[in-house]
């Protein structure tokens, strides 16, 4: 592993003024060696945040995207529009979009192809529901979501793909953080899935964990061998908290990179 990814999505929070202020607070941040930080603001601030963070160490992404280049898709945003704002990443298939906005494994696949076609790095979110977890079929669900998301993707493009395992039951104020042992098991199995799909290229896809990550538990996830980063919500919305979370795993990351 050559780097650890630590990012936050601001979800539907921060209007333009607050988003710019948060970006300005992050602008001069120098992350510890081996950590690639990223922020994912709402669309209304995407261009402004990209401008503020243009020469910074942070990457910027969008929270969603349509798969077509343009057309009569009222309310949607195309890959070119996102590129035009200056973003280099795009979050695809977050469970909140699957749950509330009809996102399916198949639309995730279309969006992954579109992102790669347009030079955007897709951050593919996969996750098991509480029912799936309790019935013991999490691994089947995650393998299915991963295989469909990556279906037809050329091996050379896999170097630009990120996957975040985010149990639906772990996300948000009512979620409970996943046990590190369970995350380790999931990631080890996911590693096998991507390796079976795409050999050495698949084996290098960064696998992040997300869901109620906080200052109390971040080290338990980042310390795991098959966890290549974390994707954080609430606990990282304040810029100072985000930077503190990153700083708190400095030693773990340098050990990981050296290993
Ligand atoms: O949803 C996510 C995690 O949210 P938490 O508030 O940390 O539970 C993840 O996608 C980052 O936005």
From TrEMBL:
Keywords: Cytoplasm, Gluconeogenesis, Glycolysis, Isomerase
Catalytic activity: D-glyceraldehyde 3-phosphate = dihydroxyacetone phosphate; L-erythrulose 1-phosphate = D-erythrulose 4-phosphate
Enzyme Commission number: 5.3.1.1
PANTHER family: TRIOSEPHOSPHATE ISOMERASE
Organism per entry: Gluconobacter kondonii
Protein name: Triosephosphate isomerase
One annotated GO molecular function: isomerase activity
Subunit structure: Homodimer.
InterPro entries: Aldolase_TIM, TIM_sf, Triosephosphate_isomerase
Pfam families: TIM
Lineage of producing organism: Bacteria, Pseudomonadati, Pseudomonadota, Alphaproteobacteria, Acetobacterales
Annotated family: Belongs to the triosephosphate isomerase family.
Pathway info: Carbohydrate biosynthesis; gluconeogenesis; Carbohydrate degradation; glycolysis; D-glyceraldehyde 3-phosphate from glycerone phosphate: step 1/1
Localization per record: Cytoplasm
């Amino acid at each position: 592993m050559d780097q650890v990814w630590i990012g936050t999505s601001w979800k539907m929070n921060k209007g333009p003024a607050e988003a710019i202020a948060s970006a300005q607070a992050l602008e001069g941040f120098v992350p510890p060696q081996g950590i690639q930080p990223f922020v994912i603001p709402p669309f209304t601030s995407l261009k402004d945040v990209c401008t503020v963070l243009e020469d910074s160490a942070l990457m910027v992404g969008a929270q969603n995207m349509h798969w077509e280049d343009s057309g009569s898709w009222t309310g949607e945003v195309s890959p070119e529009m996102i590129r035009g704002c200056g973003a280099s990443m795009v979050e695809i298939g977050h469970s909140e979009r699957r749950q509330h906005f009809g996102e399916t494994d198949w639309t995730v696949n279309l969006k992954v192809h579109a992102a790669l076609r347009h030079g955007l790095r897709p951050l593919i979110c996969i996750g098991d529901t509480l029912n799936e977890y309790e019935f013991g079929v999490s691994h089947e669900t995650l393998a299915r979501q991963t295989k469909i998301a990556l279906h037809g993707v050329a091996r050379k493009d896999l170097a630009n793909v990120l996957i975040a395992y985010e149990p639906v039951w772990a996300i948000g104020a009512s979620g409970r953080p996943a046990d590190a042992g369970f995350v380790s098991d999931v990631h080890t199995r996911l590693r096998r899935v991507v390796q079976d799909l795409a050999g050495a290229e698949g084996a290098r896809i960064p696998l992040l964990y997300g869901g109620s990550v906080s200052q109390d538990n971040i080290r338990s996830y980042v310390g795991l061998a098959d966890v290549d980063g974390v994707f954080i919500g609430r606990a990282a919305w304040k810029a100072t908290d985000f930077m503190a979370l990153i700083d708190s795993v400095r030693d773990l990351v340098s050990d990981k990179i050296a290993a």
